[in-house]
Every structure is written in C-alpha cells, then in structure tokens.
Amino acid sequence: MNDLPPELSALLGAQGADATRAHRVLAALSDGAWWSPRELVRATAVAHRTAAAVLDALGPDLERASAAGAQERVRLVRPGPYAARFDRPRPADPWAPLMEARPEAAEELRRLVAEAPPSLTDLDHVAATARTALRRGVFLDERFDLAGRRLLCVGDHDLTSLAALLVRPEAEAVVVDVDERMLAYIGAAAERLGLRVRCHFADLRLGLPPAVAGACDVVFTDPPYTPEGVELFVRRGMEGMADPRRGRVVVAYGASETTPGLVAKTQARLARMDLVFEAVHPDFNHYSGAEAIGAASDLYVLRPLARTAAGRGPEAARIYSQGGNAKEAAAAGSDELEELAGSAALPAPGTDGGPGTVVGDWPGTAACAGVRRVRLGTWMSAPVEAEGAVVNLTGGWEALLGRALLASGGVKVRAVVSASAPQVRDQAGQRALAALLGPGVGVRFRRGGPGSRLMVVEAAPSPVGPDAPAADRLRARCRERAHGPLPRVLREALIAVAAEDGRSVNKKSARRLVADAAPWASGHTLLDLPEHRFRDLDRAAEQIFEAVEGQDGAAAPPDSET
Fold first, then answer.
1. CB 220, CB 153: distance < 8 Å
2. 206: closest CA among 471, 388, 424, 403?
3. CATH number of 96-304
4. Structure confidence by residue, pLDDT tens digits, 222-260
5. Residues of the chain above pLDDT 70, percent
C-alpha cells in the first residue's frame, strides 16, 4: 500500500523501527469495526498518546462517529489495504496453554475480579484483568517452586495471592496492604476457597509487620508507578524475604513508551539497590484502565545480590501520583496545622494543657523547646511512654488513625486528621472507629475550628469495672498492649481476668482456649490485624469465657510450664 495518508507516512517514518506500535493500532482497525480509543488501547497495549496520534494521522481514511453521552468511535473507511499491509500474525502467548489447562481457576478469578472492591484513586489503583491474574499465577508457579513456599504480596489490589494459590494450592501467601476493603475481601475469599492466605494491615512507608519480616521466599508487587513508589514497595518486599540470595522480587511496572526517561529513572533506582534484572516480560500485565500507559505493564524478575540491603527508606515518602500522598500534596495543610496548635481544640505544645510529646511530621512552630518529638514509625513499632501525646496523621496517614490511638498503650492521646477522613467525617465512621478501639477507651471528636478542615480525635481511658462482662475486660486489656503478639496478649489477659473472677486458668489451658477461639491471631499484633478481624476478636473473647464457664467445677489440667 503506497498511498498512505501523508501524515501517517510521516508518523511511521519518524517512529523508525519502533513503528510496530503504530502497526498494532492499524492492524486492529483493519477489521473494519467501530472502535473507541479506549478499546484500541486495551487491545493493542499501546499508550493512548500514540494511538491518538495514529488516529489523527489517518485523516480522510478514518470515519468518526459520536453519540450524546458516549465515547467517540472510529473505523477505517477502506480497511482492506490496511489489513493487507499491517494485519500480520502476532506471536502466541507462551502462557496460554498453561492458562487454558486451568479452566476452574480462570472462572473463579473472573468472579473474584468482577466482585472485588472498586479501585481507589488515592492509592493509584487500576484493576488488572482476571486473565492477567491467572497469567501471574501460572508464571509464578512455572518460574518458581512454590509448593511449601511462602509468597509475599506487597499490596494486592489485583488478587495475585489468590491467583497463585488457585494454581498451586500447596503454597502459602502473605498479603500486606493498607486497604482494609481488600484485606477483608481476600481473607473471606481465601477462607471460602480453603487457601492459606494471611492478611496484614500496614502502611508500607513505615515498614512491614514484625511477623512478616524475613519470613517469605518469593515477592510479588504491583506498586504505584512513581519511582518512589516502586523503590519503596520493592524494599518492603526485600525486607520480607527469608533469604534474598535464593528468592526473587517480581514487579509489575509500566510507563508510556513516550516517557522513556521515567522508566530509566525507575530502573536506575532498582539498579542502585543491587538488584539484577533477570528478565523483563513486555506487556505481561493488562488492566481495565491506565490507558495513558497502554493499559498494560511489563513484568520484571529481580534477583537481589548477596550484599543487597533492604533499608527502611524515607518515612514520609510521597509514593502515589494522586491524592494526599502525591508529591503535589506534600505541603498541603501545614499552615492550618500551625493555626490548630494553640487553639481551643489543641493547646499549643509546651503550654498548660498542651502536649509534651508530638508524633509525626509537625511544622516548626507547632513544637517548641522542651517538647519531645517522636517519629510516627517509632510510635507504631514499639510502646512509647507519652501521656497526652498528639499524633499528626494529616497528609495521607489517615488510615492509621485507629491503630495510632491504640498504640498509646491505654493512656490519653490525641490525633489530628483531615475532617474528610472516612473514620471521622460522619457518624457511621465514628461508630466504626469507637468499635475498633473497643471497651476501655472513650473517644471524642472535635473540629479544629470554624471552617477548619482538620479534626482532633481524643482517646482516653474509660475504666471497665469489675462488674463488666469478662469478655469486655479481656478486650480492654488487649487494647492496652497493642504492640504485643496477639496470642500471648490474649492468653495473659485471660489468666488475669479469670483471676479477678476467682477462677484459675493456667497457661496450658489459656493457650488451648485462645488457639481454639482465635486461630487467625497467630503472627499478628493489634496494630497489623485487619479491621474485619477486630469483630472476630470480640467474638473470640466471648467464646473464650463461655468455654471457661463451661469448665467451672472441672479440675484444671496441671500446668507443666514455668
């Protein structure tokens, strides 16, 4: 075909050997059907900008149609000549035979992806297709010996943990995510399907939960596609590896072919971490969205060198491209935070009624000489004695609100959050927060002032008296030791509450009662326990004391422990 529109000939010539991307768009159009630009991008894995340039260059050979409220659609006026030149067979998907051999897994993943919680823009979510989830599962199983091994998913909006275990049920998976909806969804699905998946809540900027660090064999992550996001999620994955020399970090990462500089910057960060690029599979992952990067991303297989160090990275990393954690939002709210410090809602640090300890990132004038400063990561990782501390959770830390209050260890603490945060913006959110904090904690909400966009949340001890139900006293004691391993905290609280009621429960009985009522508690603290498990914890407390009451009158088994 020698009579291409001049603009198209110029475009293809300018793209040189890389014109095959434009060829994909022309091949798709050569079927003569109507296409929307979005459909073209998803079918060809070509960035929207490139696809749009091809459409513009087709000139009179392209017919356009639009309807009210619908996306514009296009088709070729004379598709035959384009089909003859551009519609060449493409290489077969090497993973297709393995995927076709698992029809039950494919059907289950179609249901799971269709029913999953919607994407959150602030977390840079874009849902991978069900076929991509299955492709990841068969890839991980083919590339690695997963049987009896533990896969760590650093964020799992795309359900890769479930896909991998549907393909290889003998494996285990650990999911670490800040999105409570996904943790609950994955946990429920794994329980229904009989898959061994353990879910942990964590804001990855602060590190991994203690039980996850150094416990896994292979890592998968589809991180935010900023260089900072990729580096942080990969670092967390490396922290979770039992032996980095024998493990691998598998990363989904994509960028538009029109921004190679961004790819170079991201790859340079990974290279500086002493990670070997063992393989890069182009356009491996496909998404229901992300047309700016062709609705596709590559799959990287990274091999850590023996000297590779994970490192914690910067605590306040701005890792997302949108929302409160985007770079553009880094300074948002600092002026209002300074105004808040010294108001009726929050007396100035160092003054009468003001906090003696400030936690997190505070403006310079919000803390004065003699006021103790504590990093948010320190506050969340270990008990800090700080009666009356105030924690700054503005600027993208709002998901930590309930756990930051629990981290006080049962003493009075205040937290400052955006008034639009889900936990405080309406009565439903406030009730859910109070339920998470549980008995023994009183909570108050106070707007920062007229027109203020900030809310001060105060949590203070609310004693649970000896006449309160034993289950409530057990839950209150657990909330006072939020940093501790949950099974041990439950056992010790059980023994103490039983003693208050004149009952004797020894260590062996306590261990059995806790294991029976809360088998999911192993490996957790309250600070990394997914929110939906707090309801399970409340039910477990009641079940434990029902069992204790059932043992009344029976001889307690001998306690052989010291």
1. yes
2. 403
3. 3.40.50.150
4. 999 889 999 999 999 999 999 988 999 999 999 888 889
5. 89
